[in-house]
């Protein structure tokens, strides 16, 4: 389960599902990814559910994927290691 | 834009989109709703994006809506007033 390209409303996006033991840990991860998003001013969609977070990156301006999205996907993975 | 019944994967759910001025405020709301979810042990899906949070309540056991979901939807609205 790695990053997967998905097309939504005609826009190419990069998506990955991260699994956790409960809701609390999932929400903590959402906050860590939210923090790096705020840091660079580039924001993903973060779907927080019990035991999992679905992170989706894309560039609104580019209406698709941009180099930044791949960089942020890699940084998102790093937040998992920080667990 | 109030709570709307939606059917996803054959499961009836209660959904509402909350608008905010930026990502930070959206994430703060996600955390407030997450806190009440943890409090009662009933968890929604929280989609956090720039300027908005989509909250979806349903009962996994009931595979649909239960009295608790309506109670939690009302409590979710209260978190907005606490803004």
What attributes characterize this protein structure?
homodimer; 83 residues; alpha+beta; 4-stranded antiparallel sheet; 2 helices
Mean pLDDT rating of chain A: 94
Order of helices and strands of chain A: EEHEEH
Tally of individual helices of chain A: 2
Q: Stretches of chain A where pLDDT falls below 50 for ≥5 residues?
A: none
Explain what you see.
Two copies of one chain form a homodimer. Chain A has 83 residues and is α+β, with helices and mostly antiparallel strands. Helix content of chain A is 40%, strand content 30%. Chain A has helices at residues 23-40, 67-81; strands at residues 4-8, 11-19, 45-49, 52-57. In chain A, strands 1-2-4-3 form a four-stranded antiparallel sheet. In chain A, α1 packs across α2 (67-81). The longest helix of chain A has 18 residues, at 23-40. The first copy, chain A, is globular and about 35 Å long. The first copy, chain A, starts with a strand and ends with a helix. At the A-B interface, α1 and β3 of A face α1 and β3 of B. β3 (45-49) of chain A pairs antiparallel with β3 (45-49) of chain B, so a sheet runs across the interface.
Describe what is shown at a glance:
Two copies of one chain form a homodimer. Chain A is α+β, with helices and mostly antiparallel strands and 83 residues long.
């Amino acid at each position: 389960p790695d990053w997967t390209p998905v097309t939504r409303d005609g826009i190419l996006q990069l998506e990955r599902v991260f699994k956790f033991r409960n809701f609390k840990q999932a929400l903590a991860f959402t906050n860590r990814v939210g923090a790096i998003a705020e840091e660079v001013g580039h924001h993903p969609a973060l779907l927080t559910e019990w035991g999992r977070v679905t992170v989706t990156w894309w560039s609104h301006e580019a209406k698709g994927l941009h180099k930044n999205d791949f960089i942020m996907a890699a940084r998102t993975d790093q937040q998992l290691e920080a667990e």
